[in-house]
Amino acid sequence: MTTRQLRQVAVALVVLVFLWGLAEVLTKGSDKLDGDFVLPAVKATDVDTVRLARPADTILLVRRDSVTWTVNGFDASGDAVNQLFDALAKATVAELAAQSTASHNRMGVDSAKGKRLTFRRGADTVDQLIVGERGPGYTGAYVRRPGSDDVYLVRGELPTVADKMLEDWRDKRIVSIEPDSVTEVRVERRRGGYTLRRADGGWRIDAAAADSSAVRRMLDQWRNLQAAGFATREQEDSTDFRRPDRTVTLLGKQGPLLELALDSAAYWWWARKSTGAYVYRIESWRMDQLMPADSTLRHK
Q: Which residues fall within 8 angstroms of residue 9, CB to CB, at 6 or more apart?
């Protein structure tokens, strides 16, 4: 190798070392920026109000007691509330994505598109966060703090939670009845009905012997009955529970456990409890499980 070639190799090595050193400096600087951003470290017990303000609506979660919450005045789903705080706890900051307000609209973290999460305890604001568009690959989302230009890519389920509609936050549980607590079931239809009674360690349907296994399968459907959704104000106005298409009453030793009136619609059923004001939406296919035809309940 000639002297000239050795000199060229040496220069190339110097350039490589310089570039490597520059990359190290930039990387460390980037890590420091990422480390400066900390997601809200709040638990359900730390706050009593969570406000999710979005361009089209606002979700307001209010803690009723140590366990239960309301959402916009309705009973809230405990699972949905837990998912919010779980998403915060498990979210991770991936990288600093932008440092200019010019990027806010594109990333959905400006005042026009951003979904602002505000955590409060009494009159004090505990923390705030603005959730924007989904990140690359539809995983995670862009987020920033109010008052800061820096935008970060955060991995996790936070964007899924921030996109939940009001119906997704509401408690869809209609009833939860243990099968062994039921002593009688009354089903009324526009055309006939039947009564199931527990007797002599088994069941009877009207005056005949019932298939205890079939009755058990029926009662299992009432162990944790969840609605598919809720009626809107307009849909509630169109229902008629004065002359319902079906009613079902479940009784225990101390009296009624549930009285449910049902009104049929095109693709589902509306249901309302005698003790409640909510009108629930139930899928049509569930009717044959909740109140089967009497012929399927008779002992073969």
A: 1
